[in-house]
Fold:
Amino acid sequence: MHYSRQLIAIVLMSLLALPGYANEKNTYNRVSFQVTEQREVNNNEITVTMGIEHDSRDATSLADEMNQLIASAITTIKKFPSIKSSTSDYSIRPIYSRDRHLDHWRGASSIVLKSQNSKDMAAVVQKLQETMLIKTTGFSVSADRREKIQTEMIDSALKKFNARAKQVSKSMGFKKYRLVNININTSGNTPRPVYANAMASPKAMSAEIAAPSFESGYTTLNVIVSGTIEMEVTP
Structure:
């Protein structure tokens, strides 16, 4: 008796599942495609990484020297409100000789600068180059500007997708279609950072340092809309 009830329950569940299964399988006149909206945008944000590297026989005096240099650099940066900064890669590590004896200590640190004001960036970098060297420079589209432009591009891409759907449907002899699914993807090929030459001691640099010149260039933003439509026969 108990077995019979279980069997009946299984049969009923199977019957209930059949309509949904049939509907899922009976899909016709579907086509998938994608459209792309592309735009070349002026980079409006510059990122510069400044680095410092010093050697000393004494770890304590080296740490004090490094800290003073970084504090001085931060004081200089604060004179330029348009510049955002953060320190990174701070380290003091032992350097050993070939016979594995401690030879000296090496201190290194970096300061990452970011701004949408290239004039201020050139000025602050010029000052910092008295004690630090440029490690990398990079250019990009700022987050707020990217968001605004990509919002416009999404609207345009969706219009393209709708127009293409109407074209496909009409060309295949259908008067109507419905959207099955759609995906929106955004991307941008941000230029790679430009690396400076191997770092030299600031003492070997000229006291008169010209301000650097920055050329921001462009970033190509892409919006890809892909999806599937199902064309319907209408009277």
Q: What stands out?
A: The domain at 45-139+193-215 is CATH 3.30.70 (Alpha-Beta Plaits). The chain has a mean pLDDT of 84. The beta strands are 30-42, 45-56, 84-96, 102-115, 133-140, 176-188, 194-195, 218-232.
